[in-house]
């Protein structure tokens, strides 16, 4: 404990740096705000000669403020994306109409969408027929005649 008290306000800089490194090692954007509060407490300790008790209270107050500010500036997980099908490309095809590239025989066929050939399932249909995608299950699209 003597070592930390000898460091004075620099102990807060060390603590803040450790919290920021921990945030990098285990990201979750929570330790970031505590690390910034510790750095701010260290800066406050350099400017004003504060007792350790006041520094702890200042850190607690700055941590609360930093976490609240962090919650305001961080994107919320429930917010709708401007690209909702980014990682679910097949789901974006539901409801669209495409032309069969290969006929559907025994329930399976193929359709070309942009530069990709997709496997489709549905009623037997001749090549060149327009089909509407009604469902997507992984890389397989379920279609019906348009």
UniProtKB/TrEMBL annotation:
Annotated ranges, domain NfeD-like C-terminal: 91-145
Lipid bilayer topology: Multi-pass membrane protein
Classification lineage: Bacteria, Pseudomonadati, Pseudomonadota, Alphaproteobacteria, Hyphomicrobiales
Pfam families registered for this protein in UniProt: NfeD
Any one biological process term the GO annotation gives: proteolysis
Localization: Membrane
Segments passing through the bilayer: 12-40, 52-70
Protein name from the UniProt record: Membrane protein implicated in regulation of membrane protease activity
InterPro entries xref list: Membrane_assoc_protease (IPR052165), NA-bd_OB-fold (IPR012340), NfeD-like_C (IPR002810)
Keyword flag Transmembrane helix: yes
Single GO term (MF): peptidase activity
Domain of life (superkingdom): Bacteria
Keywords carried by this UniProt record: Hydrolase, Membrane, Protease, Transmembrane, Transmembrane helix
């Amino acid at each position: 404990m003597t070592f930390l008290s000898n460091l004075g306000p620099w102990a807060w800089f060390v603590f803040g740096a450790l919290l920021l490194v921990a945030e990098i090692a285990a990201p979750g954007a929570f330790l970031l705000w505590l690390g910034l509060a510790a750095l701010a407490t260290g800066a406050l300790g350099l400017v004003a000669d504060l007792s350790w008790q006041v520094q702890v209270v200042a850190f607690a107050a700055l941590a609360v403020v930093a976490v609240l500010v962090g919650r305001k500036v961080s994107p919320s997980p429930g917010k709708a994306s401007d690209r909702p099908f980014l990682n679910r490309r097949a789901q974006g095809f539901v409801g669209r109409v495409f032309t069969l590239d290969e006929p559907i025989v025994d329930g399976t066929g193929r359709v070309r969408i942009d530069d990709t050939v997709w496997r489709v399932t549905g009623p037997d249909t001749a090549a060149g027929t327009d089909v509407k995608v009604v469902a997507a299950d992984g890389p397989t699209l379920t279609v019906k005649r348009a």
